[in-house]
């Protein structure tokens, strides 16, 4: 049986949107798949050594379950994003959901290849030293080369 | 059922039971049996899908004292 392949484009850097690429990549790798994630725009945040700044915001997110009904203007008050983030992280921990750091390490350990989009790295003035080791840098053509051979290709 | 190694995934949520089951199998020899215990209801379907896709045989799958128990034979 030929090894299956999956390519993911990770474009989001919010806490909730950081999970799907890492969950799917670590799982596919556990199933023996060959996996690459191409990080671009806000997805680049997931490559930073320090992930503690990854947050979730109740603003513009009407589907987010809240302990009490929360008017939009209240959600916009200073400190609300930090509060929502710490509540979400605490809930995740309680329910046995892995941290982003853990999922990312599991991906790297299982040889998931991480590619940072060079154009957006330059756009946001990221330094390579801000990112974890083992990241490769490339552009759309680099992604397409692998994506063209995949069984599953996702844009997240 | 006899087994060679055990992995307790109690309290862990998706995808950790599967990803860590795979890690547990890594240092085992072909034919050896791994017993996995999980509290994640999703792991019932996931473990079957894992076995099917990796060739590791799911010898037995059941519930024991409110937990899910699996026996996997390494391919």
Written overview of the protein:
The complex is a heterodimer of chains A (156) and B (75). Chain A is 38% helix and 15% strand. Chain A has 156 residues and is of the alpha/beta class. Chain A has a domain at 5-54 and 100-155: 3-Layer(aba) Sandwich (Hypothetical Protein Ychn, Chain: A), CATH 3.40.1260. The radius of gyration of chain A is 17 Å and the shape is globular. By secondary structure, chain B is of the alpha+beta class. Chain B has one domain (5-73): Translation Initiation Factor IF3 (2-Layer Sandwich). Helices cover 31% and strands 35% of the residues of chain B. Chain B has two helices and four strands; from the N terminus they run βαβαββ. The mean pLDDT of chain B is 96. The interface between A and B is medium-sized, with 15 and 16 residues.
- Secondary structure tally: strands of chain B: 4
Average per-residue pLDDT of chain B, rounded, comes to 96
Structural class by SSE content of chain B: alpha+beta
Highest CATH level, the class of the domain at 5-54 and 100-155 in chain A: Alpha Beta
Poorly predicted runs of 5 or more residues of chain B:
none
Topology:
The complex is a heterodimer of chains A (156) and B (75).
Chain A: E1 5-10, H1 15-30, E2 34-39, H2 72-75, H3 80-94, H4 100-109, E3 113-117, H5 118-123, E4 136-138, H6 140-147, E5 152-155
Parallel strand pairs in A: 1-2, 1-5, 2-3, 3-4
Chain B: E1 5-9, H1 16-26, E2 33-38, H2 43-54, E3 57-64, E4 67-73
Parallel strand pairs in B: 1-2
Antiparallel strand pairs in B: 2-4, 3-4
What are its keywords?
heterodimer; A: about 160 residues; alpha/beta; five-stranded parallel beta sheet; 6 helices; 5 strands; B: about 80 residues; alpha+beta; Translation Initiation Factor IF3; 2 helices
